[in-house]
Amino acid sequence: MKAPALLESVLHGAWRRKGLFSTLMLPLSWVVRAAVARKRLRYEKHPERIYHCPLPVAVVGNLYVGGTGKTPVTIALAQALRDRGWHPGIISRGYGADVGERARSGRGTLDPARYGDEPALIAQLTQAPVAVHPNRALAVKRLRRDYPEVDVIIADDGLQHLALGRDLEIAVQDGRGIGNGRVLPAGPLREPASRLKYVDFLITNLSAGQSGPAAVDSPARQLTMSLVPAKAVHLATGLALDWASWLREYGDGRVSAVAAIGQPQRFFSMLRAGGLDLAHAVALPDHHAYGTSPFSALPAHPILVTAKDAVKCMRFNDDRLWSVHVSPVFSDPEWIDLANDMLRMIARHKKAVAEQAPRD
Predict the structure, then answer these.
(1) What domains sit in the chain, N to C, each tagged with a CATH number?
(2) pTM
């Protein structure tokens, strides 16, 4: 395991309990909690600082630092809303990209260096327009200017970005739940766990055979999600095989896997549950830049990477590389219908308010 990935693993291990490290970090955690509270209070006292989009806005985010499975939920929501007649647009911070002062928008195949790996993946898989900027209001405005057909906004991440008004909140956690329940750096949470009382949906992303965390005290509609391999795409040729076909063709040989996501072991566990006996499993830090190929030391047999990593690995033209595309399986599939109904109601309300507003 690479040093940054090892350090991250050690930290997450420490955050599972209220041990010595966590206790020593408590004073700093109190400072973070106070800063979070002040920030929220500032927006409550000055609501005019919040940008409210005329379109319904759904935010997909988390409390736990690192990867919990937000992006698959964002993709699933965008695809489901499009199937129900919407024209969704997605905004993101564009983590890891050199965005610049102005928001940037695009659709289809996007350069991850300019948009970020997750926005590039979302654009590729949903074919929905995407806009990126740390200031989410600027991203929304750019998206609406460049793609006027958009009628619903999905924010990938941004639960803590209070400057953007939102109408629907979806929190995603994984089997770690809220960890030791403490805020950074004494624990893994960006803000107190009580924040989950105010979200609309709480989705717990579980690996195969993994039991869920302790129940959360929240009126949110709560459900679980598991990711399963749906297909594998050969990066050099674009050949796509459904997972069963890929297993029949390549699954009996030696296969390696490489992942640079928040929880790489979750990817490896999914592949093993999907029928593979991995010869090598290489974990890299989340959002790894892939400045040079990390595959040269691996044997000459198929190498599976996540779809998020694949958008940055195309340029290597390595014939061994296949990207694995996943499908989420929800314990409560009707949650998307409920979200759709809520967004429809919100859209009607916003339209009515706009029509009644005085005109100059």
Answers:
(1) 23-225+331-344 (3.40.50.300), 227-328 (no CATH)
(2) 0.91
